[in-house]
Amino acid sequence: SGGGGGDGKKAGAAPTSATGEKPVEGKTAGIASGFAKSEQGAQSAAANYVVPLGSADMFNKPRRDEILRAVMTPSSVNSFEARLDRAYTADFFKNVGLKEDGTTPNGYQFVSRTSPIGTKVTSYSGDQATVEVWCSGLLGLAGEQSTKPVTNSWFTITMKLAWTNGDWKATTHTQKDGPAPVPGDDRASGSDEISKAVEGYGGFTYAR
Question: Is residue 195 packed enough to be buried (19+ CB in 10 Å), middle (13-18) or exposed (0-12)?
Fold first, then answer.
């Protein structure tokens, strides 16, 4: 929901406005579910799925496996679990500021948040869809003397989805950098301000 008049497009284009399908009300493992069998529904599913897939919950194996079971097709879950188990290693955790077991050091708050900016269908055949989701992300450790402060990034996720048991579920997803806008002149906030923002501002259910 919300207007699309702030992006310089002429009246009638409104690419950032909701375009017809009502936001879903269903939830699976706390993640939106029950999307329409349409291009709009596929875009909404992809936008909602990139959020948990880019969240701090992915650094906790039980929660990560739960997320994968909620957003992936049943036939894809095991391979993705194995792939991510190999990726989320002690060295990877240390690289983002966590302890070797993936927990957050005392006195710090780990931030990993993905926000969809827009979606685009690149292929659609009724039971199959490929959707690109342009995203902004936050990643880092908020806290005094953090050596891994929270930084912002821009990336595009390509997600292939299949209509499975009455809903869109992902079969694969890949990520590439950009497009990234020119950085502005915003003052970087302190770690305490970032921590309060992450705790205080919740996320959304997205609808195309």
Answer: middle
In the structure encoding, which two tokens stand for residue 108, read together? Answer: 């710090």
**Whole-angstrom distance, CA of residue 117 vs CA of residue 166:** 26
pLDDT, tens digit (0-9, with 9 covering 90-100), for 30-53:
888 999 999 999 999 999 999 999
In the chain, which ranges are E strands?
Answer: 26-28, 31-33, 109-124, 128-142, 151-164, 167-177
Residue 160, phi then psi, degrees to nearest 5 = -95, 135
Interval 4-26: pLDDT, tens = 344 444 444 344 444 555 556 66
- Ordered by where they begin, the domains of the chain are 25-181+190-199 (3.10.450.50)
Nearest to 135 by CA among 123, 120, 124: 120
* Strand 151-164 versus strand 26-28 pairing type: unpaired
**What contacts 85, CB < 8 A, 6 or more positions away?**
61
Q: What is the strand order of the sheet 167-177 is part of?
A: 109-124, 128-142, 151-164, 167-177
The answer for residues whose C-beta is within 8 angstroms of residue 5's C-beta and 6 or more apart is 11, 14
- On whether the CB atoms of residues 84 and 68 are closer than 8 A, the answer is yes
